[in-house]
Amino acid sequence: MKNTVKYSIICLLGASLLASSCNFLNVDPISEIPESQMWQNQRDVNAGIAEIYSSFRTALRTNWFCWGEMRSDNFVLYQELPSEYSKLLLNQMTTDLPSTSWQSLYKVISNTNFAIQNIPDSEITDQALKNDYLAQAYAMRALCYFYAVRVWGAVPVYLEPVDNIATAKVQGRTAKEDVLRDVIIPDLEMAESLINPANVERKRISRNAIYSILADAQMWLGEWEAADATIDRFMAANGSPSSATTNSTVVFEKDMTKLKNSFVECLNNKAGDNNPNVDEYGDPNEFIFVIHQNINEAGQNNYSLIWSILGCGMGQGSVVVLSPKLQTIYENAAAKAPVDKRFENYLCPSKSSAESYQVHKYMANGARVNYQDYINCQAAYPIYRYTDVLLMQAEVKANLDKWQDALNLVQFVLDRAGVSSKIAALSDFSSRDELIDYILDQKQIEQVGEGKRWFDLVRNHRVVEVMNPINGLSSTDEELFPINQSVLNLCQNAYKQNPGY
């Protein structure tokens, strides 16, 4: 497949990029400067890389919630009001929903392709810096395709910039497994070979972020040994959960109070410093890669939706609250000694009577943000943190039938929550599936509100089993999102709609 990757160009960015004479050159993906005049020096390249992250921030601003969380069993609507979120939660998918369009994601991919083509010829004399820029472009392209295949399955692939759409070929979609094996993983391996280990920024791709995405992609292919080896490299670079390496900026935080403060303090109000060798997030903490939302830095349309969707805290309004199922799990954990510390630190009542609960991870306990003020607050969406990698490896170990190793990894998370005595015993499981279900349950409790649950269900083929009793989802075809109808219309039947829509 490596020599036959199909470059599907037309329609990828949608009507907004094709409105003017159908030529990508009329809408430069980086800036107002023509592409031929870009990418010449370090300033140009830094601006181009910044645009990759800016367009990724735009693409994930709502889709971080829609793709990773809103179709899962984590939440229900706070109020029964018609919205995209209500359709996602109720499994009433339609092909006009914004989250069904890949336009914004392919804009990021277009930006990465220009970077990959032009950075090698730029006038940057520092080869390590040039390689690091290239690594970020390769890794960001891989991450965008990784989101695409998890959301739509087979997707169009193109790996070169488009100079003239009039001569571009329109090809079909490439199978998910082929994109994972022949595009995503090679891009990440290339990025790993190029990245500067001194790059410790969390708002941009680092070596730790590459390890995280690579292991995740390998898991989606069922390449358990490879994923295990990738996570071992991550651990070697940063230390085990019990003992961090010297000078590592990414650590497993053992203390729940400090972890809570990391969500509250380290993800909020962090101005960029444009220095990859300096960690603007300060002391070592859990976070590996985040999407920073800051309207002062990126304009009025780039404020965080965390507090409007998940809640502004202490009874302030939210779009969603915990599902009754998940609320019962948390309440039961808090009602038994020892008390699970996550109940207090991850949740708060959505009403004074505590009829339901909001995710309160990103706010100090007892705090709130005035609803009219939240758009001015800086916050970040976590894409990966150390606990992600730890629980990913627990799932890997289970699939390798190293059951005790898997439970040992979960133990670290329960130790931090203060409920280590509640961990299941090896004798409680009679099959691999039972152990995986247990790990997924622990991931759900630990990572609620972090854009992971839906992908965990899809990867492990649990969607129908879990969601059918909740919203009637009845077919594995519904694991995928539909393709937005505007894309299909624009492409003149070049792509077939996903089954079931």
Explain what the structure shows:
The protein has a two-stranded antiparallel sheet. Strands 2-3 form a two-stranded antiparallel ribbon. Strands 4-8 form a two-stranded antiparallel sheet. The N terminus is likely disordered. It has a domain of about 70 residues. With about 500 residues, the chain is mainly alpha-helical. The radius of gyration is 22 Å and the shape is globular. The chain has 19 helices and eight strands. α8 runs antiparallel to α14 and α14 packs antiparallel against α16. Helices cover about 45% and strands about 5% of the residues.
User: What overall form do the CA principal axes indicate?
Assistant: globular
Separation of the first and last Cα atoms: 28 Å
Structural class: mainly alpha
Task: Give the proportion of residues in helices.
Answer: 40-55%
Main beta sheet strand tally, sense and closure: 2 strands, antiparallel
Order of helices and strands: HHEHHHHHHEEHEHHEHHEEEHHHHHH
Strand content: 5-15%
Mean pLDDT: 87
Tally of separate helices: 19
User: Count the strands?
Assistant: 8
**Rg over CA atoms:** 22 Å
